[in-house]
Amino acid sequence: MRPIQMVDLKQQYQQIKAEVDAAIHEVLDTAAFINGKAVQDFNKSLEAYLQVKHVIPCANGTDALQIAMMALDLQPGDEVITPSFTYIATTEVVALLRLQPVFVEVDPQTFCIDPAAIEKAITPKTKAIVPVHLYGQAANMEAIMAIAEKYGIPVIEDNAQAIGSDYYYSDGRVQKTGTIGTIGCTSFFPSKNLGCYGDGGAICTNDDQLAAKMKMIANHGQKVRYYHEMVGCNSRLDSIQAAVLNVKLPRLDTYIAARRNAADFYDKAFAGNKKITTPYRAANNKHVFHQYTLLLEGVNRDGLHQFLAEKQIPSMIYYPVPAHRQQMFAAFGSGETHLEITDWLTERVISLPMHTELDEEQLNYITAQVLEYIHNH
Asked: Which residues pair with 157 in a beta bridge?
């Protein structure tokens, strides 16, 4: 059996090595390392794939979120509603811009932000809502957009873990996650479903004015070189990373299918075990399984994590400390925030290996070891 990786990027690379190497060498030969043809090509291809008017590539997913908030003219003290049960980048940029994070609960089934909790948290100071499509599961965007429209609040989708997911509206319409809100942000960190070989990110929107503004912000606040109309930043997707993404984007749906097949195997293996809740699959979206995360009840989660490590099976706890309990937010009064569901989840979730190269032998071994531990403990 091949060694089990949490994400097996080496095996995935072997499948596309010739194309990736050729694409990188093309960039090297042209020496167009910044904003070269590879970036322009990727830009157009991602717009077509997402069926969105504007994609603005940038340096990483964190920058994407920051640029989105800057483009909405959010001012220090403005409130931004966000889940606490998420990777820190989502909330870090709120603090960086001296905005006020307002942490709310997630749905215990989907792990995504609870629309009812959003509405309860809205005040006259609320200037943005940031739903996170966690682990590859879409948040309830139809309900969130209805609330946002009711109160006139822009929505920034954190789509870093769910690129490629289809969202189904109650009237039958289908839209890609990340294109539903006012602005969508994503990351191409190597472990993502669509990952490059370094850092990378993108912002997307159907709003022409916002798109023009975000392009400027990402490029030092300039449209014309050396003429800076606003304070911006320097955030670019480099040509070599775009070249890698150009090879991988046409395979994204195939990669997602492979992840779903692995998830199906896990689901079947754990079916009927009362101590394990497998990932919920909402009817209104297609889970893309950036992570395969179990919810354990009556099981020593940390004990299982250690046991699997001893069996050469990696596992991860995403995320052991929610944002509202992080020291970095103490100055924002987060210590007074009480989120029972979020705290409950952080003590019970564990993510198993999930990637495009998992084979049946590996999956059999992983599931057998999980079930053995739970049976014996």
From this structure: 184
pLDDT tens, residue by residue, 134-181: 999 999 999 999 999 999 999 999 999 999 999 999 999 999 999 999
Integer CA distances (angstroms), 238 to 28, 57, 214, in order: 12, 9, 17
Closest CA to 362 of 311, 318, 289: 311
How many CB atoms within 10 Å of residue 34?
9
pLDDT tens digit string along 81-137?
A: 999 999 999 999 999 999 999 999 999 999 999 999 999 999 999 999 999 999 999
Which residue is associated with the tokens 């969105």?
52
* Beta strands 126-129 and 79-83, pairing class: parallel
349-352 and 292-296: which strand pairing?
A: antiparallel
Domain final residue pick, 210, 234, 250: 250
Does residue 2 form part of some domain? no
- Would you say residue 3 lies in a domain? no
d(CA 102, CA 323): 11
Question: Which pTM was predicted?
Answer: 0.97
137 burial class (0-12, 13-18, 19+ CB within 10 angstroms)? buried
